[in-house]
């Protein structure tokens, strides 16, 4: 038996002894940037790609080797499902929009209404990324859409970029998820937004359908995220949880 075959046989035997498939660690999870701290704690097995949900959706549509897709809104996952590119999505987490300001609050921002006067540096997600779409819905409900015209606005491709911009002092304020505010609590301060204006923020996840997809491990990962232990991690990072079942 040649050396490569011996190594393959050893790997298969080890996998059998451990009760897991030999390819168990060789699968890819494409997930919204706001999940970049929680997901690796739930499972260290996958190869992760974190970015804006709309960017990841486009990559999957172009044939990227994703096995699991987790988006920060139902739109992206449901679009892939409608196109036959993933199994039926499941809702696994919720979130809330907040504003964050740098430590010291140099822009002297007290509430979202502080932005009506203009002259502030505001970081938001682009209209196509979920956090950007949610932000625009919230501002419209508050009749404050004009703040995106009256201030100096930077359009960011994902929520991590918004958070970094504020944490570094390159923006006076940014619109992010509650979980991102908590993750950057050492460098930023969170300002709550009116509850009645909050759009529902729902995260959905699905197993990607493609040639060569690691469907078994993808479904196993989804079960891990939605398990009692997985939900406990999400809750610890500040995510809300949908009813179980």
Q: What can you see in these coordinates?
A:
The chain is built from ten helices and ten strands. Helix 2 (38-42) links the parallel strand 1 and strand 2. The protein has a five-stranded mixed beta sheet with strand order 2-1-3-10-4, with helices on both faces. A five-stranded mixed beta sheet has the order 7-6-8-5-9. Mean pLDDT is 90; it is low at 1-24. With 245 residues, it is of the alpha/beta class. Residues 1-26 form the signal peptide.
How many H/I helical runs? Answer: 10
Mean pLDDT: 90
Q: What topology, given as strand order, has the largest sheet?
A: 2-1-3-10-4
- Helical residue percent? 25-40%
Strand share of the residues? 15-25%
Q: What's the alpha carbon Rg, rounded to whole Å?
A: 20 Å
The stretches of 5 or more residues where confidence is low (pLDDT under 50) are: 1-24
Give me the CATH superfamily of the largest domain. Periplasmic binding protein-like II
- The CATH class designation of the largest domain is Alpha Beta
CATH topology of the largest domain: D-Maltodextrin-Binding Protein, domain 2
Provide the structure class: alpha/beta
Could you tell me how far the N terminus lies from the C terminus, measured between alpha carbons in angstroms? 50 Å
Family: Belongs to the bacterial solute-binding protein ModA family.
GO molecular function, one term: molybdate ion binding
Protein name: Molybdate-binding protein ModA
InterPro entries: ModA (IPR005950), ModA/WtpA (IPR050682)
């Amino acid at each position: 038996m040649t050396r490569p075959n011996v190594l393959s046989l050893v790997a298969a035997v080890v996998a059998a002894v451990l009760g897991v498939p030999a390819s168990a660690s060789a699968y890819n999870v494409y997930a919204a940037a706001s999940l970049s701290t929680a997901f690796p704690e739930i499972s260290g097995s996958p190869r992760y790609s974190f970015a804006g949900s709309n960017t990841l959706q486009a990559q999957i549509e172009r044939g990227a080797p994703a096995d699991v897709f987790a988006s920060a809104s139902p739109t992206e996952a449901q679009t892939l499902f409608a196109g036959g590119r993933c199994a039926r999505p499941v809702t696994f987490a919720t979130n809330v929009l907040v504003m964050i300001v740098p430590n010291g609050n140099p822009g002297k921002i007290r509430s979202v209404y502080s932005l009506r006067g203009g002259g502030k540096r505001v970081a938001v997600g682009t209209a196509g990324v979920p956090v950007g779409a949610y932000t625009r819905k919230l501002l419209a409900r508050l009749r404050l859409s004009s703040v995106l015209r009256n201030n100096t606005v930077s359009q960011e491709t994902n929520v991590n970029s918004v958070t970094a911009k504020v944490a570094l002092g390159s923006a006076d304020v940014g619109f992010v998820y509650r979980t991102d505010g908590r993750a950057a609590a050492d460098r930023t301060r969170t300002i709550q937004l009116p509850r009645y204006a909050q759009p529902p923020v729902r995260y959905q996840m699905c197993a990607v359908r493609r040639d060569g997809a690691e469907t078994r491990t993808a479904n196993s990962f989804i079960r891990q995220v939605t398990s009692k232990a997985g939900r406990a991690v999400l809750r610890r990072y500040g995510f809300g949880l949908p009813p179980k079942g």
